């Protein structure tokens, strides 16, 4: 009969004996680790509850009330929303905002992509040009930029003098209802640095072998851009479109400052957030303003949902190619 042999791994004689941890001890250690994690997260949790979640819940309640900051809120149901849809100035703010988003966002992204394509090529002073084009995005839509922009586009300022030299005089964009919105579009287009940097990162990920193969097949620059560059950077393009669209809906500071706090002339710069500000803090109709804020949230959510639905048709991820 055979003899059973058990192989035991040698271990140092002074090695401590390792015993499995009891289930109760494991639970206690897990609770201590969870408690430590929650303690580290507590500042963020407190800030979120007090500065974000709490005010959002309060504004949702105020949206269904008649509240003017001085008296107690009075529940009125959907009256704020009904009054909003019949308000001509609210309709004007929706029109102005939609026009700004539809014109400004594509122009900004087109310029950002064009400059990114130029800067993606190796050339002397490349780092300087990247920093120079990105610098305006660091400033943001600050009050100081708004004042400078209003001075540039005022009557008899540098933009107006340049136009007069070229043969047409508008009297300044800021004072003309037909032109003042385009000064805001020019401001957002000027700050194209952030999407440009994102486009640059996406262009760096396109394999050079694809361009070399296309050149061998006789593809020209346009065909290489349309059939290789755009599909390969489509996830980056989708990200920029989504981000810049949401930012465009939130425009306030530049419109408020450039119009000298009037959102005019003739309500030409009455963007949605500007009218919301007037209703809430000038006319003290905080319930109406809260309803406007939630309508803006729903509109942005709807646009975001449409963009995510449309990405299935034109955004190509690496997994799709496989």
Automatic annotation (TrEMBL):
This is ABC transporter permease. Belongs to the binding-protein-dependent transport system permease family. Residues 94-307 form the ABC transmembrane type-1 domain. One of its GO terms (biological process) is transmembrane transport. The chain crosses the membrane at residues 35-64, 100-120, 132-152, 179-203, 224-243, 289-309. It is found in: Cell membrane. GO terms for cellular component: plasma membrane. The lineage of its organism: Bacteria, Bacillati, Actinomycetota, Actinomycetes, Kitasatosporales. InterPro entries: ABC_transporter_permease, MetI-like, MetI-like_sf. It is a multi-pass membrane protein. Keywords: Cell membrane, Membrane, Transmembrane, Transmembrane helix, Transport. It comes from Streptomyces olivochromogenes. Pfam families: BPD_transp_1 (PF00528). Residues 1-29 are annotated as: Disordered. Its main location: membrane. PROSITE patterns: ABC_TM1 (PS50928). SUPFAM superfamilies: MalF N-terminal region-like (SSF160964), MetI-like (SSF161098).
